[in-house]
Amino acid sequence: MTALIERRSFLRAGAASLVGFSMSGLFPAWAQTGSAGLAPSSPTLAGDDIHLRIANSTFTVGGRTGHAVTMNGVLPAPLIRLREGQNVRLHVENMLDEDSSIHWHGLIVPFQMDGVPGVSFPGIKPRTTFTYEFPIVQSGTYWYHSHSGLQEQQGHYGPIVIDPAEPDPVAYDREHVIVLSDWTFLHPHHLVTKLKAEGGYFNRQKQTLLGMIEGGPEEKMSASDRAMWGRMRMDPTDIADVTAATYTYLVNGHGPRENWTGLFRPGERVRLRFINAATMTIFNIRIPGLPMTVVSADGLNVRPVTVDEFQIGNAETYDIIIQPAEDKAFTLVAESIDRSGMARATFAPRLGMEAPVPPLRPRATLTMKDMGMGGMDHGSMAGMDHGAMAAGASAAAADHGSSHSMGGMNMRDKSKVPDSVKVGVGVDAIAMSPVDRTGDPGVGLEDVGHKVLTYRDLMSLTPNPDTRPPQRTIEVHLTGNMERFMWSFDGEKFSEGVEPIRFERNERARVVLINDTMMTHPIHLHGHFFEVVNGHTGSYPRKHTVNVLPGGKVSFDLTADAPGDWAFHCHLLLHMHAGMFRVVTVRPLEGEAA
Amino acid sequence: MKSLLGIVLVTIGMPALAQHVHDATEQQAPTDPHAQHQTDEASAGPHAGHAMPPKASEPKDPHAGHQMPSSAPMDAHQAHVGHEPGIPDPPVKGPSAAALVGPAHAADDVFGVSAMAPARNIVRKEHGDIKSGMILIDQLEATIGEGKDGFAWKAEGWYGGDINRIWVKTEGESRFGENPEHVEVQALWNRALDPWWNLQAGLRQDFGTGPDRTYAVLGVKGLAPYWFEIDGALFVSNKGDVTVRIEGEYDQRLTRKLVLQPRVELNFAAQDVAELGIGTGFSTAELGLRLRYQFVPEFAPYVGVEYERALGGTADFRRARDEGAGGWRFLIGVRSWF
Questions:
Q1: Which residues form the signal peptide (chain B) (predicted)?
Q2: How many C-beta neighbours within 10 Å does residue A215 have?
Q3: How far does Cα A484 stand from its chain's mean position?
Q4: Domains (ranges, CATH) in chain A?
Q5: CA-derived radius of gyration, chain A
Q6: Looking only at Cα atoms, what is the longest distance across chain A?
Q7: Residue closest to A5 by CA, chosen among A88, A105, A79
Q8: How many alpha carbons fall within 13 Å on the CB side of residue A357?
Q9: Interacting residues of A426 by C-beta distance below 8 A, sequence separation 6+
């Protein structure tokens, strides 16, 4: 019954928190489900003083128990519910035998409260408590997670919801927080070791000779295209580094079989706050039978746009509204981008109801566009309306056409990148002709036969606060070597002692992210929201994390208004760990003369 | 039967498809106009106050636009077909002088250098400086062929970072119940040359029934186009003998677990080495074909065949010892790594 909480109650909770009343225990268990025999439900924390305790614990899913690193003993960590305009003190006690930290993902905070060890603060030593304190200057759906080692993979993450000070422009009768994540019983360092030994270790969906002869839906690639990929030593099925071969995909800490269930009354407007807290998994989300109206992206409101499916990169958040009218159950399907597995949950009027779970769709195959050749003979494709495009056929035809003209092409042409990019061991490809792919729905979603969200569908609900045109461009190349599992910006790992990316305080600049690799990278800048340049000048969606599709590029305009040092990285945790990380500096600092 | 099934499927599929199109159209219109009401008000404000860029197609009546939530972005989307969105990129430039003022590390001002410096060292190492290792038993097999049956192995292990690694290789063979005929161990330094190729240099020590030898090794190992794994090395012995070995193999996945691996090994010598039975020139060739079943990538039993043959002077040396120049053998073994 606890899930039958209405929004009014949350508002009451906010009021209660103002007098410092501890709500945990009394509060609805947001991540609880009706199924029997499951992990204890997660509590909600609110108020001006919030206590979190990071410790070793265990986590059970699919009947198996493993070691986890959790906060307050639960996975995901407690929901932190705040109110715009309040001040919050977060007391974080580290009970581990190693350093830890919490980064408040998407929250605008002073740099020293941002929680990145070695960049914003020294980290939280074992058996010590660090108190974060900052004003809450925004509202929306966010999350928090460790920025130390690979603790995030072990369960160190949780959701944050901030209620707006003004009336919420989004009307809803009920809400559910949906934390998506990926769980493995392998130690995260073993993931790294396996990937260093064999870049495609977790990919169990590679092309095969028998598959080619039988010609299944996953094998529709001509022999000449196969040969071309082989010549490049690239695998067109290399879509996710870590897959369902080891992962169980979770909704609010529940595996597919545990079937987390969110309740609704038919006819209600239900707000779903999606957070991708996964370590290495980009999800494709749909609720068969229910259109989803996207009302916010990365915590900030956007003009409502209705879609059938959307892709969510690691660390992105989307709020959607569903309005199930019938007295029946619906399945939430969150397929991993490589379609090796899915997270699954149910929305139903009553506990115990279920809807059919659709089978995994055929694994996608990378295209010429993913290879960075999108601009070569069909530049307009990037801007094509996918609704109008008889997607599968025309995309395949276009790709097929371009492959024939590829004979002697250099897939690692150093003249295509500025001198600042070090084209060495860690760079196995350079996009020859990268195109803006903000109009594309994501790998494998070109031909699914229904409307899939693209970044170009997103428009900020409120006008962009800074409409000055950018004064300079900073080009950042996303680079990697799939075989050696090396990942970097501009061909240099952070460990090599690279220069920070420097901004003058309040300068307006454009950052162009060019993905020279054949993987999607969710790129996150700390401490700022940036405007994704998607054609809607003045109403660009403002985000903290942006997916850059393979072989494509994304531009964002940034007002560098947060003095300090900030992390900038790929939010695929193991890519960051492998070196895809930079420090961004904004100077002068507070109180300094320019 | 199959075609009948096909017809049934198509017949079932058609209405389903029609239904789908229908759904997609339907969702353009909100089922409950009231539902969007609050949002509409909020978004109408900013719209009224701000001139939209000429490129984005402005809905004539903002309210009408909002009643169909997906239509406004879709219009703009279509308006940009074939265009780079937004204004052209400004020039690529470095940071201004003002961006360079202040402390090198902002957090030093708050927490002190002594607290931040060690943390900075850790964060640097944790983002790219990964050391890892692997032990690969590529072949561990029983050999069944002419003469007495025996066994053979070929394994390697490495440890290190992305560029520099320590690499150890060993191979050898023996007949059951006898002393090993040939045992070879190499200790190498491995340096990555480019995304796919590595330079390997070090020492090789041979043991076995013949005379022991020590060699200096210089080789390249890597991945050639079309996924051919190549390992080639030049050996110079402590007696001054120069030999070359080139190995190549290819993993053909028949299914996701069944892998067919053709393999070739060629040996060359710059001079006769009578003690070791090696003749000048192309000395031996080995062609193998192994079919393995990967229960997991780390564990794959296999069966295979191998044809080995000595050529030229090497074959003469063998004949002089009343041995055949070459022959077939069957293999049963396991490939494993961890």
A1: 1-18
A2: 10
A3: 24
A4: 2-170 (2.60.40.420), 367-442+454-594 (2.60.40.420)
A5: 23
A6: 71
A7: A79
A8: 16
A9: A479, A480, A481, A484, A486, A487, A488, A491, A492, A493, A579, B162, B195
For residue A197, give the chain B residue with the closest CA: B134
- Do B73 and A424 make contact, defined as CB atoms within 8 angstroms? no
Rg of chain B in Å (alpha carbons)? 34
Contact B171, B184 (CB under 8 A): yes
Give Cα separations from B102 to A58, A521, A592, B97, B106 (angstroms). Answer: 45, 32, 7, 11, 8
- pTM value is 0.86
Residue B45, CB-side half-sphere exposure with 13 Å CA sphere: 9
For chain A, give the number of residues: 594
Contacts of A206 in chain B (CB under 8 A): 253, 256
Chain A residues closer than 8 Å to B98 by CB = 504-505, 587-588, 594
Q: Which residues on chain B are in Cβ contact (under 8 Å) with A152? A: none
The B residues from 137 to 166 touching A (CB cutoff 8 Å) are 162-163
Query: Is B297 within 8 Å of A325 when comparing Cβ atoms?
Result: no
B22 three-state secondary structure:
helix
pLDDT tens digits, one per residue of A256-268: 999 999 999 999 9
Whole-number percent of chain A with pLDDT over 90: 79
Q: Are A107 and A68 in contact, with CB atoms under 8 Å apart?
A: no
Test A493 with B129 for CB contact under 8 angstroms: yes
Distance of CA A352 to the CA centre of its chain: 30
Cβ-Cβ contacts under 8 Å for A43 (sequence gap 6 or more): A24, A25, A27, A29, A72, A74, A78, A79
| Residues in contact with A75: Cβ distance below 8 Å, sequence separation at least 6, in sequence order | A39, A42, A57, A59, A68, A155, A253
CB contacts of B120 in chain A (<8 Å) are 118-119
CA distance A535 to chain B (A): 4
Q: What are phi and psi of A375, to 5 degrees?
A: -95, 5
Contact A100, A94 (CB under 8 A): yes
Residue B127, classed as helix, strand or coil, is: coil
Locate the chain B residue with the closest alpha carbon to A387.
B74
Q: Is B319 helix (H, G, I), strand (E, B) or coil?
A: helix
How far apart CA B226 and CA B248 sit, in angstroms, is 12
Q: Which residues of B touch A384 (CB under 8 A)?
A: 81
The 3-state DSSP class for residue A192 equals: helix
pLDDT tens digits, residue range A105-155?
999 999 999 999 999 999 999 999 999 999 999 999 999 999 999 999 999
Q: Which CATH class for the B132-337 domain?
A: mainly beta
Domain boundaries, chain B: 132-337
Cross-chain CB nearest to A450 (options B24, B74, B193) = B24
Between positions 166 and 225 of B, the ones with CB within 8 A of A are 192-196, 223, 225
Residue B15 falls in which region: left (phi positive, over 0), alpha (psi -120 to 50) or beta: alpha
Quickly state the pLDDT bin for A167 (edges 50, 70, 90): very high
